[in-house]
Amino acid sequence: MLSQQDMLEAERHGKQVRSIYVYEAPVRLWHWINALAMVVLAVSGYFIGLPLPTQPGEASDNFLLGYIRFAHFAAAYIFAIGLLARIYWAFVGNHHARQIFMLPITNKHWWSEVFFELRWYLFLEKYPKKYVGHNPMAQLMMFFFFTILAVGMVITGFALYSEGAGLGTWSDTLFGWVIPALGGSMQVHNLHRLGMWIMMTFAVIHIYAAIREDIMSRQSLISTMISGWRMFKD
Amino acid sequence: MTETFYEVLRRQGITRRSFLKFCSLTATSLGLGSSAAPTIAHALETKPRTPVLWLHGLECTCCSESFIRSAHPLTKDVVLSMLSLDYDDTLMAAAGHQAEAILDEVKKKYKGNYIVAVEGNPPLNEDGMFCIQGGRPFVEKLKETCADAKAIISWGACASYGCVQAAKPNPTRATPVHKVITGKPIINVPGCPPIAEVMTGVVTYMLTFDRIPELDRQGRPKMFYGQRIHDKCYRRGHFDAGQFAEAWDDEGSRKGYCLYKMGCKGPTTYNACSSMRWNGGVSWPVQSGHGCIGCSEEGFWDKGSFYDRVTDIKAFGVEANADTVGKAAAGTVGAAIAAHAAVTALARARQKAGDSATEKQGEN
Predict the structure, then answer these.
(1) Nearest CB to A186; choose among B244, B311, B348
(2) What does the mean pLDDT of chain B come to?
(3) What gap in Å lies between CA B237 and CA B258, rounded to an integer?
(4) Residue of chain B whose Cα is closest to the Cα of A213
């Protein structure tokens, strides 16, 4: 339903008004804070698994991995709290704020739009369509590779965090069960790292698609995530 | 008839006067008041020591080997004074039908009041024919013996998780005790073997307090398995400092730096090695320069190499670690994006040419 509504909105306004307010301030702020947190998490996480070369000098003079782990945990808290705040905003924000949390999977029209977008990306469609929020294909990808994955990363991440925090801490109470459920600490470490790679691969696709659509499609994308306004080019 | 605690104390040369003093002191320190002293004395005088039946399934006896080396408390005190070890295939002198008869006797006499300690696990394939004792499958003996037990102790990685005989592809279908016995309190004491003092510690706790120790989610006593090796490792300072042994016998290895990069499983292993150590506190793996192999973790044989930190994940018949998979995926996607961008640019250029051509046609 959403995309149909968006379509109508876009087609109706497209010719008359040149822009629509899509992303509210909290969504935009979250997007960029989240992006930054993800960069810190991926880089620090990579070096937690495969640490940098040995530091010279006394152990008491160094705290390199300690700082890296601190950065990882701090960014993890920002990422997790940001995600909670973003879920809250899905309830109180405009309907675009709900897009990445819900898929209209029962809507046949939405599915046809997904396939239209797929054909567009495969160069089988000559002209792109106009969308106010995410296009249906982007929404689908965003739901699985960001929303679901991010929740998974938060759960496995805090489960691993609870190992250091200790029995009886809040992270252990809430997420400690994940460790035996997924087959032990080592397995959770591995899956968490695999999740990082999937997330990063998706980030690359996300950035490419955003830049490409910004150039190729009939609406603005990147500036929309800064100003909140979607500009229509024709 | 099994001796009471009082009889054992008297036999060890403790006077009745000292015994009564001990009872008053215990009553006071427990906050029960002086009136409880006779109750405690009465309990110790009349309560028989708990009989323990020690069964051996598919195993290597490393748990027993570890157990008999306990220093605090000494094994002789545990076996001869504290508990009444009524059956243990490898330690007892009796054999044959006489030995097996003890099982039935204890079962009847101490119904619901004896402890079963299981070393090893039952194989379930071929109706349990891969482990035969006294002419019948071990799994039957285990089920029968556990039926009237008060509690069950699963010794070692075998009984707790399956260990090497349950490693993939597990041809005999060796199965951990808690998946065969249900409805009884089961204490998992994993490790290959568990630390001697952990074993005697668990037994002592159960006999002294007459209840099972507090367990974590995986049924392990919290007091010994509540923390990882890594949390109390004496090399932890080097980990936080970012100082690692990068190869066997390199400078870092000689200086006793952290073995994380050499695949030490300390950060993913719950056990008491780094605080209690082995052989009466003489040493333990990390102290002797080798990383932890994670022997007290579930399925540790199937969790990749002992010498990798980012280990292999086995799925869909492929063995690769997260980094290999991730880099391959990122590389493929990167290449695909480059190709896609190139095609996009090409298509756009062609379309523009086409558009301008149509425009020109329109003008004509």
Answers:
(1) B311
(2) 87
(3) 8
(4) B344
| Distance (Å, whole) CA A223 – CA A232 | 12
Question: What SS3 string covers B4-54?
Answer: EHHHHHHHCCCCHHHHHHHHHHHHHHCCCCHHHHHHHHHHHHHCECCEEEE
Question: Rounded to an integer, what distance in angstroms lies between the CA atom of residue A90 and that of residue A84?
Answer: 10
Please say if the pLDDT value at position A117 is more than 60: yes
Is residue A2's pLDDT more than 60? no
Residue A187 touches partner B, C-beta closer than 8 Å: yes
- Residues 6-65 (B) with a CB less than 8 A from some CB of A: none
Q: B239 vs A204: CB contact, 8 Å cut-off?
A: no
> B328 to chain A nearest CA, in Å?
10
Contacts of A102 (CB under 8 A, 6+ apart): A143
Task: Determine the average pLDDT of the residues in B94-98.
Answer: 85
Q: What is the pLDDT of residues B212-223, one digit of tens each?
A: 999 999 999 999
Q: What is the ipTM of this complex?
A: 0.87
- Using a 10 angstrom Cβ sphere, with 0-12 exposed, 13-18 middle and 19 or more buried, the burial of residue B140 is middle
Residues of B with Cβ-Cβ distance to A126 under 8 angstroms: 351
Distance CA B350, CA B113 (A): 87
Residue B90, number of CB atoms within 10 A of its CB: 12
pLDDT of residue A1: 42
Residue B205 confidence (pLDDT): 82
| pLDDT of B364 strictly over 50 | no
Within an 8 Å CB–CB cutoff, is residue A144 touching chain B?
no
- Taking CA atoms, B277 is separated from A61, B229, B256, B282, in Å, by 28, 10, 17, 7
> What backbone torsions phi and psi does residue A231 show, to the nearest 5 degrees?
-95, 140
Provide the strand spans (E) within chain B: 51-56, 84-88, 115-119, 132-133, 136-137, 151-155, 186-189, 312-315, 318-321
Query: Between B227, B242, B270, which is nearest A55 by CB?
Result: B242
Determine which of A101-110, A214-223, B76-85, B178-187 has the lowest per-residue pLDDT on average: B76-85
Instruction: Give the position of tokens 């080592």.
Output: A186
Smallest CA–CA distance, residue A201 to chain B, in Å, is: 5
Distance from CA of B36 to the nearest CA of A (A): 34
Measure CA B208 to chain center: 23
Burial class (CB in 10 A: 0-12, 13-18, 19+), B35: exposed
The per-residue pLDDT for range B170-183, each reduced to its tens digit, is 999 999 999 999 99
DSSP state of B279: T
**CA–CA separation, A195 vs A152, rounded Å?**
8
Specify the amino acid at residue B22.
Answer: F
Q: Do A205 and B337 touch (CB under 8 A)?
A: yes
Task: Express the helix, strand and coil content of chain A in percent, nearest 5 each.
Answer: 70, 5, 25
| Residues of B (239-268) whose Cβ lies below 8 Å from A | 239-244, 246, 252, 257, 260-261, 265, 267-268
Give me the sign of the Cα torsion angle B76, B78, B82, B87: negative
Per-residue model confidence (pLDDT) at position B286: 96
